Each structure stands twice: as C-alpha cells, then as structure tokens.
Amino acid sequence: MTENRSLFDRHEIGGLALPNRVVMAPMSRVRGTAEGLATEAMATYFAQRASAGLLISDGIQPNRVGTANPGAAGLRTDAEAASWRPVTDAVHAQGGRIFGQLMHGGRIGHESVSGLQPVGPSAVAANAPLFTLAGPQQAPVPRALTLDEVGEQARSYAEAAVRAVGAGFDGVELHGANGYLISQFLSSNANLRTDSYGGSIANRIRFAVEAVEATADAIGAHRVGIRLSPDAGIWDVVEEDVPELYAALLAELDRLGLAYVHLEATTDEATMLDLRRRWSGTFMVNPSTWTQRGGAPYGPVPTNRESADHWLGLGADLISFGRAYIANPDLVERLRHGLPLAEADLATFYGGGEAGYVDFPAYQQTA
C-alpha cells in the first residue's frame, strides 16, 4: 500500500513534468477526415482537456495495413503527421502534454476500410463484427504474416513514432491491449504460429518486445509507453497463463527504461499487484472494469474518484480516465473540488461532427 498519494500530486515521466496524476485515456472518437487527417475540431477537443497531467490521443494507425477504423487520423504519411501539428500546438499552448497512441489493428481490420486484406500472427478471424462505412461486417480471415513481415510490422510502430515526434507529440504509447496486433501475438487463439513468435511464452511476447525496442531506439525510451489489458478477452482474444505471460513481458520491457506501462484492470487484483511489484518505473492503471453478462464482457464500468484513489493506494503512479473525459473537459478541476460530472451521450461517442465532442462546457459555465 502507498500512503498519502493524491491524484493532484506532481509526477515525472522521462523528464516530462506532469502537474497531476490524472491521465486522459486513449479513446477512439474517429473525428478525422476520410483521408486520415486530423482536424481543427480535434485540436479544440484536446486543448480543452489540457489540464490533465497527460493526454493520450485516439488510436492512430501507423501504416495502411494496420488501419482499423474509418475516419481515424493517421501517422501513415508525412501529410498525415503534419495534420497533427495544430493539435499538439494547441495542447502545448494550453500548457498540456500529449502522447500519441499507435494502434495497429492487425486482424481487426477490413479491406473496405484499408484497401488491403488485414494481417495477423495467423490466418484466424476474430469472431466479431467490425465497424465499416457500410455498417457492421464480420471480421475477415487475415493473412498470416511471413517471418520477414513480422519484423516489418514491428518496425512500423517506430516509423510512426518518428513522425509523431516530428508532429509535436511528447511521446507515444504502443497499443498492446484490447485485441489489436500486439495483443494478438500475446494470445493463444489468434496466434497459432510454430516459429519463434508463437507457442511458448517467450515466443508470444517477442513481437511486443521487438516493437517497443524498435520504437525506443527510434525516439528514445523515455518517450515510449505501452498499454496492456491482461486477460481482457476483447475482440475474441484468449490468453493462457496470464500471470506468467505478463510477468515475462514486463520483465523484458522493464530493462528498457520506458516512460510508463499502462495497464487496464482487466485481470484479478492479485495479478495486477504482482505486476506492479515487477515494474520499476511509472505504473499507470485504468481502473475501468468490464461488467459481465453470461460470462462475456459487454460494457465498461467507468473510472471514478473512488477507483482512482483505490489504485493509487495500491501503488499506481498515474490513473487514466476514459469516458469521464468525454463530457468533462475540466475533469481535473471537478475531481479536485468534488463537483458533479456531466454525462455524455453514447450516440455521439464515435464519428460525426462537433456535437458531443467539443461542445461540453467547464463546470463554472454551467453553475
């Protein structure tokens, strides 16, 4: 247990001074253009929330084949990277800090979105419908990556990270959670490989480690974090030997001197606490837990002040809030003063225009 740790204490990650321990979690709001460019509304949205200790962007596609969501701004090209500069400038003008989340969808992608057959560790489709411009469509069978291509996709995170830093991001977070490509390599049902990237725990963590190493080499480890979701079961991913799998992964990553590890509280508390003990650097937790219906996850219980304080007491250094940030751009101030939180409309979470995106006022404007 860690005594007297407050959400409003300062903290430092990789030389970056955070004024508080509140982090805005990455959320897919898909407000980019059809061409994959960031927009003026996105600059407004993130700047409005710049009082967070750290902002983490929507999941950003690092390359074309890794594109999961239509309407998501990318870092696939120099033009896409340039479109993010007004966003990072707006955040910095408000005194904020922002990491870009690099999200390679792997098998969670569709040819109608990317123009390419999605790829994955193995030719195993997710048993799930995907969001496309034509509406929900069943996830297709991905093409299994060749051994050479595995290395290429690991390096795609590093290439996108270089563009991100050039666009003004303070660092990047690799999306290793929620059933996307890194998570697929960690799994035992999406990854059926028999080469050095499949089978044993040492082999299943190899892709994650290589992707992080490449990114750290490219922009500096102090600018790199990774998000993980042990045993989450999202996007039809199954993991075996979860405590051992993630203990081995964190042992490999801990030696790199990363900015942070960002864990979703998707496994039991005992496993989470063991991972905390194994990690020597900044440990970020998203306490949002998934409620169950018939043994399957169907929806998150959002992070609140109580769950945040609970995890700070258990040794977390930073706490990420997702849905609370949608309708509360001044979340830090509301939490600090015990003010009521506004609620967002699910119908405006994804895509669309400015409604439900940049039109939520700070508390004092509604009092």
UniProtKB/TrEMBL annotation:
Matching Pfam families? Oxidored_FMN
**Entry-linked InterPro entries:** Aldolase_TIM, OxRdtase_FMN_N, Oye-like
The chain positions of domain NADH:flavin oxidoreductase/NADH oxidase N-terminal read: 7-341
> What Gene3D superfamilies does the entry give?
Aldolase class I
The protein's matches in SUPFAM superfamilies, at most eight in alphabetical order, are given as: FMN-linked oxidoreductases (SSF51395)
Q: Which PANTHER family match?
A: NADH OXIDOREDUCTASE-RELATED, NADPH DEHYDROGENASE 2-RELATED
UniProt-recorded name of the protein: Alkene reductase
Q: Which organism is it from?
A: Nocardioides imazamoxiresistens
